[in-house]
Amino acid sequence: MNDEHPASLAGRRIVVGVSGSIAAYKAVLVVRRLLEAGAIVDVAMTPAAAAFVTPLTFASLTHRPVVSDVLALDGDQQIAHIELAEAADAILLAPATANLLAELAAGLVPDAVTAIACASRAPVLVAPAMDAGMWTHPATQRNVAALRDYGYIVIEPEVGELASGLTGIGRLADPVHIVEAVERRFARSGDLEGVRVVVSAGGTREPIDPVRFIGNRSSGKMGAAIAEAARDRGASVTLVAGSMSVTPPRGVTVVEATTAAAMREAIIGAAPHADILVMAAAVADFAPVRPAKRKIKRDGSALNVELVPNPDIVAEVGEMPEDVRPFLIGFAAESDDLEANATGKLRDKGLDLIVGNVIGGPFDAIGSDENKVTVFGVEGPLTDWPMLPKRQVAERLWDLIVDRYRKARDGESPAPRGGRRSGG
Ligand code: C5P
Fold first, then answer.
1. pTM for the model
2. How far is the CA of 250 from the centre of ligand 1 (A)?
3. Do the domains at 13-187 and 196-409 have one common CATH topology?
4. CA-CA distance, 232 to 9, in Å (whole number)?
5. Among all residues, which ones are annotated catalytic?
6. Burial degree of 67 (CB within 10 A; 0-12, 13-18, 19+)
7. Secondary structure class of 351 (helix, strand, coil)
8. Euclidean distance between CA atoms 343 and 357, whole angstroms
């Protein structure tokens, strides 16, 4: 175990706040892993949490008193929750119930856990766990958005079997991932510190006339998650945003580009100044040759709109000279033969990696909060990942991209990149 976590949290004081979810038992595993990583862990519990796991369990593990009473004094007759709030290097709320999220969003402090989170200036990480209906309810989503606004790091719940017996999103993130999130918070510098990242996201809209367009259903959620994850790893991030149904993450430079032509201009301009380009946008393949200046009137006859192919933006970047070409990741949404089509595109477009997902089956990744992807290099498939929330897909993608990017930069590329560039 210690090989996995070589004292990455040595001497860090972490307060783990546990609230009343069936997932409270997993907090025991989280605490154990934090201890193994060298952290000094204090546990605070809501009264409901103590109904699921006893304070004695945590006290035995941490060899420290557990705070479950907001009015409790510590051994020095100090208010225990204030002492902990001040001493903490980070606060981890796991599991966080819908109720806890609502209290934190509203600034309510009915118990020791909320009191510590509210009183502390330490970074707060929150790992929600609840029924899928509760997680997707607009009230919960609004509370989560408020917490993100306060600067909390949200460790997204996973898709899986829930306490109700149903399968859906809401299961507490894997304890391993929770501890990794804490470790990332303390990594002296994120693994993308100083790296310039450009991400394109969303779909393009190709005007037919001033009000109509040809577009697609892309929500931009995957690209936004990739940009957000890069930001959290220390990259300076430019998001080239097509039409998106989600708000771009804070702390990234947003360049709006709603047509393929505008996106081309933005990407071709930004690429030579970027170290890594992730082309997650769904760029329309065709655009009306001449958009009408005025709204086209209906006159009973058929309307023919002549379409011309759009420039393949990522392929153009793939052909840039080596000294300005960023490390290049494309996406491929395929309805059949994912591997052949994705690796074909990787070669044709001169990419380093391509992220493939199957569309048109029973699960529709477009617009969903989850995605199941396979990443391909020129040598074939590199991953076998399950269906995951898009933010976790983004994290895994960055783990892989950073590794490959470093190797390519240091001249130990595991395999030649996609072809055109090298004349293939
Ligand atoms: O060929 P296809 O559209 O499936 O390729 C998808 C990849 O190519 C994505 O990374 C997409 O952003 C990029 N693309 C592009 N310019 C286009 C079409 C797609 O950069 N005109």
1. 0.64
2. 26
3. yes
4. 18
5. 216
6. buried
7. coil
8. 12
Place of tokens 């329309």: 284
- The residue with tokens 């065709």 is 286
Amino acid type, 246? V
Find out whether 340 and 362 touch, Cβ atoms under 8 Å.
no
Pairing status of strand 124-128 against strand 90-96: parallel
Side chain identity, residue 154: V
CA 360, 366, 370, 371 dihedral sign is positive
Supply the Cα-derived Rg of the chain in whole angstroms. Answer: 24
Question: Whole-angstrom Cα distance, residue 176 to residue 396?
Answer: 13
Write the CB contacts of 398 (distance below 8 Å, at least 6 apart in sequence). Answer: 191, 192, 226, 229, 230, 233
Looking at the DSSP bridge assignments, the partners of residue 381 are 376
Asked if the 13-187 domain carries CATH number 3.40.50.1950, the reply is yes
The tokens describing 222, both together, are 């995957």
- Determine the distance separating the centroid of ligand 1 and the alpha carbon of 255, expressed in angstroms: 18
Amino acid in position 323 = D
Does residue 326's CB lie within 6 angstroms of at least one atom of ligand 1? no
- For 278-313, how does the pLDDT look when each residue is reduced to its tens digit (9 = 90+)? 999 999 999 999 999 999 999 999 999 999 999 999
Burial class (CB in 10 A: 0-12, 13-18, 19+), 30: buried
- What are the residues whose beta carbons fall under 8 Å from the beta carbon of 285, sequence distance 6 or more? 309, 310
- Our answer on whether the CB atom of 281 is closer than 6 Å to any ligand 1 atom is yes
- Residues β-bridged to residue 126: 93, 154
Q: Which among 204, 336, 349 is the best mutation to test ligand 1's pocket, defined by most ligand atoms within 8 Å of the CB?
A: 349
Q: Amino acid identity of 228?
A: E
The CATH number assigned to the domain with range 196-409 reads: 3.40.50.10300
Task: Tell me the per-residue pLDDT of 165-222, one tens digit each, with 9 for 90 and over.
Answer: 888 899 999 999 999 889 877 764 478 988 999 999 999 999 999 999 999 999 999 9
Give the pair of three-digit tokens for residue 278.
């992730």
DSSP tag of 205 = -
The domain limits of the chain are 13-187, 196-409
| Mean predicted confidence (pLDDT) in 67-76 | 78
Q: Which residue has the tokens 């190709």?
A: 206
Q: Which of 330, 331, 401 is nearest to 366 (CA)?
A: 331
- The answer to whether 313 and 267 are in contact (CB under 8 A) is yes
Residue closest to 184 by CA, chosen among 208, 155, 210: 155
Q: Specify the pairing of strand 236-241 against strand 153-154.
A: unpaired
Which amino acid, one-letter code, is at 231?
R
How do strand 374-377 and strand 353-358 relate by DSSP bridges? antiparallel
